[in-house]
Amino acid sequence: MSIKQLYSIFLLCTTQLLSSQELQVELVLNAELVNQTNQQIFTTLERSIKDFFSTQVWTSQSLKNEERIQCSFVINIKNYSADRFEGTLQIQSQRPAYGTNYSSPVFNFLDKDVQFIYQEFQPLFFNAATFDSNLVSLFGFYAYITLGLDAASFSPQGGDAYFEQAQRILNLAQNSGFRGWRQNEGNRNRFWLIDELQSNTFRPFQQALYIYHRKGIDQLSSDPLEAKKAIIEAIQELKQIYDRRPNAFLLQVFFDAKADEIVEIFRDGPEVDSQGLKSDLQQIAPFFNPKWRKIR
User: Are 295 and 266 in contact (CB under 8 A)?
Assistant: First the structure.
């Protein structure tokens, strides 16, 4: 696939798009795994979540429709009993490449520790100062993570204010009894995600996001050679993290979103010295080695 063909790809939403002030959310709720005779509760829950996202404002910004961040929340319910739900939440977001119709993936994360209590027809409200509902706290946390990653892709360290908001939500939720908010509940959960995003040790992550997108993705159509060089520079920023913390969570977060895109960019177009890039990628993200071998 050529770079021009890469740009022609556009993610078509197959479910209703929900427009809030900053996020354009594609919501999917799947309860097929639950052995429940009355499926109405899941229909009501889905409607409540859609209503929540359609009215919730996360920041003081006023954005045009085309400036809203495209993202999706896919909730898979695995267990339901006595108003308690358990399952997973897949969050994905993308941002437009300047001057094109192509959307570049920024965030692709599966939260396996989703638990919440919901009573049918219960309204969902977000209050930044209190913990009222684990479901709403989950949405708030990932909304600010999404906003932060998007902002970091446009300006150096642009995500800091949003990550601080996500940290506040985590602090309020830690004593709720629901999983995923605490340090001792795994090494790939919400606690570690926001911890690394705010740590000075992992500052190169935001710098890599900025270089990759503003100097790389946004320049691919006008100057593909320089864009490729910028993307290589961004990977070198991530190499700094690997050299300090080889098992850093944020490296997985980055490449879960970007692996396929990197391969497509370097499979075609102007040639660059990609041997160093391949070596870095094979070291930093060995899980994707079958993909890296396609880079020429």
Answer: yes
